[in-house]
Amino acid sequence: MNAINGLIAKARELADNSGNSSSLREDSQRLSEPQAARILQVSDRTLRRWRVAGRITFYQSPGGRISYDPVDLVAFRQSMRVRAIDSGHV
Q: What is the pTM of this model?
């Protein structure tokens, strides 16, 4: 559980330290695609593929800007871990 809380705290810290924080604050503090990729420890390209494939929850502004909620990132990371454990790959 501490790892999850740490992930949420890190995601919120990135959102708070962003120079463009007003666009990240919709219902909650949202993260850009590069920020979300760093949190998940994957490349921007991998995260984009997951988004296009419908594997991860994202938000798109009317102007087309993609963002991610830290809580959704935690849920996604947990689901990936559960799948890895279920398949025997840890």
A: 0.64
C-alpha dist (Å) from residue 13 to 8, 24, 58: 9, 12, 19
Rg (CA), the chain: 13
Spatial distance between the Cα atoms of 41 and 54, rounded to a whole number of angstroms: 19
Backbone φ and ψ of 9, nearest 5°: -60, -45
Amino acid at site 43: S
CATH of domain 2-86: 1.10.1660
- Distance between CA atoms of 88 and 90, rounded to whole angstroms? 6
Residue 88, phi-psi category: left (phi > 0), alpha (psi -120 to 50), beta (remainder): left
Domain spans in the chain, listed from the N-terminal domain onward: 2-86
- Per the listing, tokens 């087309």 go with 64
Q: Give residue 45's Cα distance to chain centre.
A: 13
Q: What is the pLDDT of residue 81?
A: 74
